[in-house]
Amino acid sequence: MSPDEAGSAEWWVDFFDEHYLLTYGQTQTEEESRAEAFAAIELAGCAPGSLVLDAACGYGRHAIPLAAAGFRVVGIDISEALLAEARRRAQNADNPEFVRADYRDVPYPDGSFQAVLCLYNSLGYLGDKGDLAVLRELRRVLARGRRLVVSLYHRDRLVQAFAPRSERRLPDGSLFVEEATFDPVEGVLSATHTRVVRGGPSSPRFFRVRVYSATELVRLFRAAGFREIECFGDWRRGPLSTQAVSIVLTARAGV
Q1: Residues 87, 46: one domain?
Q2: Within 13 Å of residue 234, how many CA atoms lie on the same side as its CB?
């Protein structure tokens, strides 16, 4: 399977639903989410009052603490189920504003935002060409000279530490099982996710994502019109090494 074929079937439109909330929605604490959000906005170089886009915002775990800190936040996501949960957690406040939209077609004018965040492995679903289109669209709505911040799987670390099966107990007592394969040549991670509850397993869910090396990401971001691209191994600007689980990347919209 080529990287572009990896994103050809839009499996992700249905993947991010109530099942996702029952699995990944239970794995990050509010404190962890708040720390990630504040670290990302610091890397973006934004002050409270700035208009920030949280692209693929999910259930609002980053958008909500940023809004509480005084940023004006727009969260977009394709999943109405996740957006409904985000609005519930935000108590239907006006800020953040949650909008159902595809991040390939952001419904805002050019240069609207002082920062764009795309966090927690929210790229890689569309193949190389599709991800390039996403990045070009995010650059379009980002004000010139301002920064995009992303966090993604680190391909080099995945090659070293890939596990074909993992299990973890969720806070509600159910068991989350992931069975995966990774093609290191094409850079495609494929997995089946199953949540096992009393009475038997739920329906398995299929997950597939293109995992990039830092070198590939820099080329992709340059092709999308970004400059001053930096890759870090953690939120504290630590150096990127093969031990870093994620790549934290910042890039400035070209001027």
Answers
A1: yes
A2: 6
**Same domain for 191 and 174:** yes
What does the pLDDT look like over 26-59, one tens digit per residue? Answer: 777 889 999 999 999 999 999 999 999 999 999 9
Provide the number of structural domains found in the chain.
2
For residue 109, give every residue at least 6 positions away whose Cβ sits within 8 Å of its Cβ, in sequence order, or none.
141
Q: Are residues 115 and 178 in the same domain?
A: no
- Cα separation, 118 vs 142, in Å, equals 12
Q: Sign (positive/negative) of CA torsion 146, 211, 24, 22? A: positive
Q: From residue 128, how far is each of 10, 83, 104, 242 by CA, in Å? A: 14, 26, 13, 22
For the chain, give me the number of helices (H) and strands (E)? Answer: 9, 12
Question: What domain range includes position 18?
Answer: 3-153+213-253
Per DSSP bridges, beta strands 97-100 and 72-77 are: parallel
What pTM did the predictor assign? 0.92
170 and 123 in one domain? no
Coil, strand or helix: which one is 147? Answer: strand
Strand duo 246-253 + 142-153: pairing: antiparallel
